[in-house]
Amino acid sequence: MRVIRNERRIRMLSSIGQYMTLAGLAALVIGLVISVVRPEWLVLMLVSMTLGFTFSTVGGFFSGRYVGPLAHHAALVEILKGLDHRHVLFQYVLPVPHVLLEPGGCTVFVVKPQEGRVSYEGGKWKHHQRGKFFRQLAGQEGIVAPHTEAEQQVRKLERYLDKLLPGVEVPVRATIVFVSPDVTLEADDSPVPAFYRKKVKAWLRGPGSLKPLPADVHGQLTEALGANQEEGV
After folding, report:
1. Are strands 116-121 and 124-128 parallel, antiparallel or unpaired?
2. Does the model's pTM come out above 0.85?
3. Distance (Å, rounded) from C-alpha 6 to C-alpha 18?
4. What is the domain partition of the chain in residue ranges?
5. What is the spatial distance between Cα 144 and Cα 24, in angstroms, rounded to a whole number?
6. Segment 66-117, tens digit of pLDDT
């Protein structure tokens, strides 16, 4: 499998995550010091604490997506490692973040980093994790509705492909991938297939395998997406 990604975007947003987290901690410390040393400076203390929480939350959000082993781009590559040369993974270069070009079409991946127990029950996603409230205060993403996010991304990519290749029918589907090794997933009824790490490749190679496109159609798709370029952007 080859990987084509926007390295510049990844570096920029990972830096934002790291520096904003540090700035947030610094602002919180300053606010705490003011509350002890100059408690009469109430407005300054409140401003510092507010900035601290804001910076920490924003920094935590970007760090969760772009920094460390569970960064979305890095974790997804690790999960898909071993797919053959016919597969090309695009990251942050198309209208949706993660797209796998396969012999039979395109698969959109919605990456989720949640740990703990995640389930889809009665049409709703539920996430149970110790300290979840405080983790979300620090910028951890909420589970929300990943199947809706996946469906929106599929429609967005379909519109993009319609403009690139008018009149050419390209199968586009989505899957939700939970990248943490510490997640327990119960989502068999999800409207969009949802898997944790090691199940993804087995699905792509087995029940989720797509019928290969005609050679000319696949060639047009490969060229239109720029799959022949060097890895990285």
Report:
1. antiparallel
2. yes
3. 19
4. 2-66, 83-225
5. 25
6. 988 889 999 999 999 999 999 999 999 999 999 999 999 999 999 998 888 9
